[in-house]
Specification:
11 helices, A middle domain of Talin 1, 80% helix, 324 residues, mainly alpha, 4 strands, two-stranded antiparallel sheet
C-alpha cells in the first residue's frame, strides 16, 4: 500500500510539473501570436497590451477553470481565481518590487486599482450565498466586455508613444500571417493539454495530502496558472518597467474575476464548497492593501515587497496547517 501511495504521489507531481510547463509555453505562444497579429492589422501597442496581453497571461487560469467547471469541480475553479488574485498582488508584485522598486502611475491608482477592489467586493457578494449561478456568471462576463470597451476607448483618446507598449520588454520579430496563426492555435492546444494534466495532478495530490479541492485550487493550481504573470512582471522589473509589473497583476485580477469566473459559472454553476470567510477576507484585504502601499510615495519599494511576499507565504502556511 505504501509503494502504491508513493507511485501516486510521483505521478501527481509529474502531471503538475508537465502541466505547468505546457501552460506556460501555451500562454507564451498565444500572447506572441495574437499580439504580433494585432500589430499587423494596425492595432496600437497600448490597446494590444491592455487587451491581448492581459487575456494571454490569464489564459492558463481560464483554461483550467473552464475545464474544472466542465468537470463539475467548481471549488477548483473558484479557488483558482481567488488564489491567483492573492498570488498576483502578494507574490508577483512583491517579487517584482524586491527586484527593483516599482514606481506607480497615478492613473493606475485612480482607475484600475479602485476598479479591482470594487470587482473583488462584487465577487464576494456573489459567493456569500454559496453559489455563483449562471446569471451571476453572465453579469461578470458583461463586466469584462464593458471594461475592455472603456479601456480601448480611453486608450484611443491619448497619444501613444513607444514607452506605452509592454512589448518593449519582449523580443519583437516580423512574422508572416500563417506563423502568427500557428502560434495562436498551437498555444491554445498546448494550454488545453496542459490544463488536463495539471488538473489531474492537482486532484491526485489533494487526495494524498487530505486537502480539499478548494485548498489545492487556492494554492498549487493558483500558483501554477499565475506563472505567465510572474514571468512577465519579473522581466518587466528587471527592465525597469515597474508600471507594467503592477498593471499586469492588477489587470489579470480584473480578468480573473470578470472573464474567467464569469465563463466558468455560465458553463456550470459554481458551488463555493471549501472556500471559507477567511479566504474571502484575505483576497479582499490584499486587494485593498495594494492601494495605500502604491499611493504612499507612489512607489512600492523592497520593504513593501518583502511585506507582500511574507503575507503570501503566511497565507500558504495557514492553508496547509489547517489540513486534518
Amino acid at each position: 500500500m505504501e509503494a502504491a501511495t508513493s507511485v501516486d504521489v510521483l505521478f501527481s507531481i509529474i502531471f503538475l510539473v508537465s502541466g505547468t510547463i505546457l501552460l506556460y509555453f501555451g500562454a507564451e505562444g498565444l500572447v506572441t501570436g495574437s499580439s504580433t497579429l494585432a500589430f499587423r492589422v494596425g492595432i496600437t501597442p497600448l490597446v494590444v497590451g491592455l487587451t491581448v496581453v492581459a487575456f494571454g497571461t490569464s489564459s492558463p487560469e481560464l483554461v483550467v477553470s473552464v475545464s474544472a467547471a466542465l468537470g463539475k469541480q467548481g471549488e477548483i475553479a473558484l479557488g483558482n481565481v481567488i488564489g491567483s488574485n492573492i498570488c498576483n498582488i502578494a507574490l508577483i508584485i512583491g517579487v517584482a518590487a524586491l527586484i527593483r522598486p516599482l514606481h506607480v502611475k497615478p492613473s493606475l491608482i485612480k482607475r484600475d486599482i479602485i476598479l479591482m477592489i470594487g470587482i473583488t467586493i462584487l465577487m464576494i457578494i456573489l459567493v456569500i450565498d454559496g453559489e455563483i449561478s449562471r446569471i451571476d456568471g453572465g453579469i461578470l462576463f458583461s463586466g469584462i466586455i464593458a471594461y475592455n470597451g472603456i479601456t480601448i476607448y480611453l486608450a484611443r483618446q491619448r497619444k501613444v508613444t513607444a514607452g506605452d507598449s509592454p512589448f518593449e520588454i519582449l523580443p519583437r520579430k516580423e512574422r508572416n500571417l500563417k506563423l502568427n496563426i500557428t502560434f495562436i492555435v498551437g498555444g491554445i492546444a498546448i494550454l488545453v493539454v496542459g490544463a488536463g494534466l495539471f488538473l489531474e495532478g492537482a486532484k491526485q495530490l489533494a487526495v494524498f495530502l487530505g486537502a480539499s479541492k478548494a485548498v489545492i485550487g487556492l494554492s498549487i493550481v493558483a500558483f501554477g496558472t499565475s506563472l505567465p504573470e510572474l514571468a512577465t512582471s519579473m522581466v518587466a522589473s528587471f527592465k525597469n518597467e515597474g508600471d507594467i509589473s503592477i498593471g499586469n497583476a492588477i489587470g489579470s485580477n480584473i480578468f480573473n474575476i470578470l472573464l474567467i469566473l464569469g465563463i466558468a459559472a455560465f458553463i456550470y454553476p459554481i458551488i463555493s464548497t471549501g472556500i471559507d470567510k477567511i479566504d474571502l477576507a484575505v483576497v479582499l484585504f490584499i486587494s485593498i492593501l495594494i492601494l495605500p502601499l502604491a499611493k504612499f510615495g507612489m512607489t512600492i519599494g523592497r520593504a513593501k515587497g518583502l511585506f507582500l511576499v511574507s503575507l503570501y507565504f503566511g497565507y500558504m502556511y495557514y492553508l496547509y496547517t489547517q489540513l486534518p
